[in-house]
């Protein structure tokens, strides 16, 4: 929902198509928090357009603006937004071991899981076969993620926490390329994430997290 409300803080989300920024839209929708969405198309080479370079020196998405403050890095943005709106429903209680574990998983996604995922996604996007080493590394990480899931649920229950939201973008792209086909528990996890109301609202507002690869080959 894109609202301008007088007495509530207005966050701007700079959102590239098919990008990690859709994670932030999901959280804002879950919190019913007002935000302004500025959308950018990808170039023909599937890169960010030059316009994003004017927003932040790295020229990547997401970037959020809150008055004079600009923040990149989706994990930092998620934490900032949850704190800003006093949200208590997307993280375990502070001071508990669960909370520490949640922070660990939230950081793990971009610090470790993304690199291993990109080992498959980047060759995949160029129509090349990833290396055996890349597949082996992915298997190790997908097993680790599966070990952290509740027996029949998400990471911490049935509703998405920040770490679940953070996983969504990479899982969407891995699944779109068929790289989750041999990982049934992770495939179910991704299926369950897509049933979350915040995910569905985010996709309506900002578009899908992964391009429809079947459309290209049809
Ligand atoms: N670690 C950063 C990654 C940001 C990032 O790489 N964003 C991608 C979109 S998902 C991007 O802007 N790519 C366009 C490009 O590099 O040209 C985060 O979690 O926000």
Q: Which descriptors would you attach to this protein?
A:
218 residues, alpha+beta, Glutaredoxin, Glutathione S-transferase Yfyf (Class Pi), Chain A, domain 2, 2 domains, four-stranded mixed β-sheet, 9 helices, disordered N terminus, binds glutathione
Termini gap? 33 Å
Order of helices and strands: EHEHEEHHHHHHH
According to CATH, the fold-level topology of the largest domain is: Glutathione S-transferase Yfyf (Class Pi), Chain A, domain 2
- Distinct bound molecules: glutathione
CATH class of the largest domain, please? Answer: Mainly Alpha
Overall radius of gyration: 17 Å
Count of helices?
9
Please name the CATH architecture of the largest domain: Up-down Bundle
For the largest beta sheet, what order do the strands appear in spatially?
2-1-3-4
Biggest sheet character: 4 strands, mixed
Number of domains: 2
* Poorly predicted runs: 1-5
The average pLDDT is 94
Percentage of residues assigned to helices: 40-55%
Number of strands: 4
What amount of the residues lies in strands? 5-15%
Q: SS-based structural class?
A: alpha+beta
Shape: globular
């Amino acid at each position: 929902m894109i609202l301008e409300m007088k007495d509530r803080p207005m966050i701007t989300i700079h959102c590239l198509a098919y990008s990690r920024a859709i994670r932030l839209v999901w959280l804002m929708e879950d919190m019913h928090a007002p935000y302004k969405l500025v959308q950018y198309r990808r170039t023909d080479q599937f890169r960010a357009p030059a316009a994003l370079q004017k927003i932040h020196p790295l020229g990547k998405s997401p970037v959020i603006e809150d008055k004079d403050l600009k923040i990149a890095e989706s994990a930092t943005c998620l934490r900032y937004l949850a704190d800003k709106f006093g949200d208590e429903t997307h993280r375990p209680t502070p001071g508990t071991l669960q909370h520490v574990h949640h922070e660990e998983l939230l950081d793990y996604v971009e610090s470790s899981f993304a690199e291993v995922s990109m080992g498959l996604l980047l060759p995949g996007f160029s129509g090349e076969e990833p290396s055996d080493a890349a597949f082996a590394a992915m298997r190790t990480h997908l097993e680790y993620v599966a070990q952290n899931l509740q027996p029949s649920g998400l990471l911490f229950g049935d509703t998405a926490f920040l770490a679940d939201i953070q996983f969504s973008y990479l899982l969407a792209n891995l699944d779109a390329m068929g790289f989750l086909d041999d990982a049934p528990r992770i495939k179910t996890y991704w299926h369950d994430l897509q049933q979350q109301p915040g995910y569905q609202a985010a996709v309506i507002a900002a578009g899908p997290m992964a391009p429809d690869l079947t459309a290209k080959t049809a």
